Predict the structure.
Amino acid sequence: MFIIILFSQRDIEQLKEEVTKLKESPDYQHVEMQTDEEYVEKKYEIFLKKYFSSMNSMKALNEMIEQLKDLNERNTTLESQLESQAELNKQK
């Protein structure tokens, strides 16, 4: 079942005026401001989560870099030891 509602141009203009008056009322402005504050708070929470997530990622990445440096140092030491051992074996 469909209900068809017809509004006259006058009805539409009256509704527009009522909406305008409501938007100008202090109650509407308070609700709008409250909604804006809630929106900002939610965006801030999202920002903080992303920030701390990126900080944790950076910390993990820095740890991996330090481990890689340590492995490179160990690798260099082992290569040097192998070269020294090869030289000793040649001399024998």
Notes: The helical segments are 9-24, 26-91. The longest helix spans residues 26-91. The radius of gyration is 36 Å. The chain has a mean pLDDT of 82.
